[in-house]
Amino acid sequence: MKGLLRIVRNIVGIAELRNRILMTFALLGVFRIGFHIYLPGVNIDVIKGLLQRKGEGWNLLDLLGYTSALTGGDLSNATIFSLGIMPYISASIIFSLLVKVFPKLEALSKEGEHGRRIINRYTRYFTVLLCLIQAGFIVVWLRRLYPAGPSGETMQSISDPGYGLAALQLLCLTAGSVFLMWLGEKITEYGIGNGSSLIITAGIVARMPQAVYVESKRLLESPSEERPFQVVSLLLLVALFIIVVLCVVYITRGERRIQIQQARTVKGRRVYGGVRHFMPLRVNSAGVLPIIFAQSLVVIPAGFLKWVFPGSQIPDMVQPGAFWYYVLYLAMIGFFTYFWTSLTFNPVEIANNIKEHGSFIPGIRPGRRTAEYLERILNRITLAGATFLAIIALVPQMISESIGVTPIASSFLGGTGILIVVGVALDLVDKVEAQLLVRHYDGFMRKSGEA
Q1: Residue 115 placed within a domain
Q2: pTM (2 decimals)?
Q3: Domain contains 378
Q4: Is the pLDDT confidence value at 353 over 60?
Q5: Residues 101, 94: contact at Cβ < 8 Å?
Q6: Residue 113's domain spans which residues?
Q7: How many separate domains does the chain show?
Q8: Per-residue pLDDT reduced to its tens digit, 105-142
Q9: Is the torsion defined by CA of 221, 225, 227, 232 positive or negative?
Q10: Quick one: which of 40, 64, 131, 234 has the fewest CB in 10 Å?
Q11: pLDDT digits (tens, 9 = 90+) for 178-220
Q12: Residue 138 sits in a domain of what CATH number?
């Protein structure tokens, strides 16, 4: 406790770090204010009631709603920030893939700051295009909602079905998402940590009070004879949450270190080189992207089969909760883990760089042998990372079915949410740690030998 108070005192004592932290919280507060500004002409009660319905089939809004929830948005409230920062994240991922595919973009990315600025400008333009497309789907969907009310009357989700209101809603959704993109860049520039990641984390953490409220309400409204079981399930939920967080931190920090030996050169009476260092290969180098891709695409087969076989039970085989749904889900996670890792880490290129710098891996010949060795090691640790992601992705469903908690509460025990929050928290701790160590303060990690 004393160590934590000392760290807080050190952070507050550094004016620059204190100002950056305060600026980060202030800009995140602006982000949350936007969720209380609703789209013009929308009946919020109708939207919430419709999005809470289950088993009515898959549509594109389900995919957009799920993905926006992972990127700081919330379609269920129909606010100007409903899309979240999803279009910018999607555009960034797409251009990360295009850089590896198109030689011109790859050459541009290697031109230093100038090339990165050009790619960032293209990413922003593409973000606006994605905003317009996704906002257009939402606006069209809003105009097709005419559910029946409690007395059988028709309830409209919008006040005016005209094109003027549609254009205004389209503009509000696009402007809200572009504003979040700008807000994330300002947090990165004037705050601490990656702005886009912090916005995503803030959107996920903001749902935690709702999960606590739902579980508390369920406990209080349960019959007296069932309350002991409910209390035990809640205590078990808290214990599992701590265990899952510890496991995620352990795997996120896990890495395989490859020893690199620099060749020795003798010039006159002096010996140069001979230094040993390590190249870290992270166990989960793909991060949370494989789960996001898999969860976004695994719903497509069910929708396609419903269109091809209407009224048949074949689509039920790949519905959420079915055996083949989980098989397809896990296969996609494994595929995207290897796919993304292969794009971000090229063993041949790394082996050539090691050779060009006059270094080598002890016991491995430079060149092709080194590339084969790195690829073999990478395939093994990627398998471990894919297995970890698959287990984490299934934890919410397993917990929800085994101890009987609500899905909103079990979602904090696994899946993309816990990976994003823990990853961003670790990155934030590293940045604060670096700021403290630069100014000769003790960081979060106590020095060896210190009481």
Answers
A1: yes
A2: 0.78
A3: no
A4: yes
A5: no
A6: 16-206
A7: 1
A8: 888 888 878 888 898 899 999 999 988 988 887 787 77
A9: negative
A10: 40
A11: 999 999 889 988 888 888 888 888 888 887 787 777 777 777 7
A12: 1.10.3370.10
Question: Hunting for tokens 């999607």 — which residue is that?
Answer: 90
In a domain, 39, yes or no: yes
Residue 403 belongs to some domain of the structure: no
Token representation of residue 193: 């940590």
pLDDT (tens digit, 9 = 90+) per residue, 20-51? 889 999 999 988 888 888 888 877 776 666 55
